[in-house]
Specification:
31% of the residues lie in helices and 24% in strands. By secondary structure, it is α/β, with parallel strands linked by helices. It binds NADP nicotinamide-adenine-dinucleotide phosphate. NADP nicotinamide-adenine-dinucleotide phosphate binds at residues 11-15, 36-38, 41, 73-76, 78, 96-97, 123, 125, 165, 171, 178.
């Protein structure tokens, strides 16, 4: 591989801006091309990151020369369509969470990545943050004993209008797919696939979930108590319970650098890690490393993990009665 790595970006919105800024932390990583639904926005974004190519449609970016990977950062309903188009063209993809709208779409994306021998990964950035690595290491080293359960939340009160992508059903809005996905992912990472799911939600006026509470059971006997919300500013902490202690991932747990271990009759033990930038370059680096090794998936955010995550989200949606047009 060249010493430069050329990223393409589809959907130059808020998160794409943060992702592109963080590429500065990776030697050789560059924004090479930008695709927007509107050429002026593509050009403005390309100019601010000195990208040589810009396109006024998402379709056109697949013809861009020398692209090493594309980052898909559109609203949820665009993930499947934009990702599959790139994969069919043999272009590796890092796609924002959730990888698609449902399990059937995720299966199709994975099948396409395999058939085209082309890299695909869901951009679940928390998986690659130093704090997540540290948490997993502490568990592996037995610091809290056998795992018993997890409690995690991700809630912020949103005053965005109903048309915004987070509330708009036609764009795949809803708290579960947008932010509830993080606690569901944490429990999956710790315990594997769940065997029982209970969930309740408040469905808002736009027809999507605004406040979703979940209880999951795992084959190892562990339990997870999870919450995602656009209605309340929750504390956004995670507690991972073991029979010899508890790991407290401080707020906001999904992007933290600090965590503590609590044990009976002992002072909490604080652990800190360094995080550079906002933290989006860690997932970008994983993509670059995997592609450099000729892999079509990451071991740490594997196709199987994304598929299992979507199976959980589908089951939770069944429990709360949330159906999207893509499910029909
Ligand atoms: N990893 C994280 O920390 C994180 C944080 C926030 C969001 N996300 C994920 O990133 C994705 C984008 O989120 P965002 O907050 O960046 O979204 P956003 O700014 O609202 O939208 C991103 C871009 O999508 C394009 N787009 C395509 N169809 C659209 C439509 N019908 N309405 C509005 N925009 C449309 C727009 O670009 P053009 O019109 O210029 O093409 C827009 O700028 C979502 O999948 C979200 O779940 C991840």
């Amino acid at each position: 591989m060249n010493s430069t790595f050329n990223w393409g970006i589809i959907g130059p919105g808020k998160i794409a801006q943060q992702f592109a800024s963080d590429l500065a932390f990776i030697p050789g990583a560059k924004v090479h091309a930008v695709a927007s639904r509107e050429i002026g926005r593509a050009q403005a974004f390309a100019n601010s990151f000195e990208a040589p190519f810009h396109y006024g449609s998402y379709e056109d970016i697949v013809g861009c020369p020398d692209l090493d990977a594309v980052y898909v950062a559109t609203p949820h309903v665009g993930h499947f369509e934009n990702t599959i188009r790139c994969l069919e063209a043999g272009i590796p993809v890092l796609c924002e969470k959730p990888l698609a709208m449902n399990y059937r779409q995720v299966e199709l994306l994975i099948d396409t990545a395999r058939r085209k021998n082309t890299f695909l990964m869901e951009a679940l950035w928390t998986r690659f943050l130093p704090s997540t690595r540290l948490m997993l290491k502490l568990i592996r080293e037995g610091e809290i004993g056998e795992l018993v359960g997890v409690k995690a939340d991700f809630g912020f009160r949103s005053d965005l209008p109903p048309e915004d992508r987070i509330f708009n059903k036609a764009l795949g809005g809803g708290a579960l797919l947008d932010i509830g996905i993080y606690p569901v992912f944490l429990a999956l990472l710790l315990f594997g696939k769940s065997c029982e799911i209970k969930a309740m939600a408040k469905i808002g006026t736009t027809g999507v979930d605004e406040d979703t509470h979940m209880l999951l059971r795992y084959p190892g006997g562990q339990l997870a108590q999870l919450h995602g919300s656009f209605l309340v500013d929750s504390k956004r902490e995670a507690f991972i319970y073991g029979d010899e202690g508890t790991i407290h991932m401080h707020a906001n747990w999904y992007q933290q650098t600090n965590l503590s271990i609590f044990r009976a009759q002992a002072e909490p033990q604080l652990f800190s890690v360094e995080k550079k930038g906002l933290g989006y370059h860690y997932e970008a680096q994983e993509v670059m490393d995997c592609i450099g090794k000729g892999k079509i998936e990451s071991d740490r955010m594997s196709h199987a993990l994304s598929a299992a995550l979507m199976l959980s989200l589908d089951s939770i949606r069944r429990e709360i009665g949330l159906v999207y047009p893509e499910d029909e």
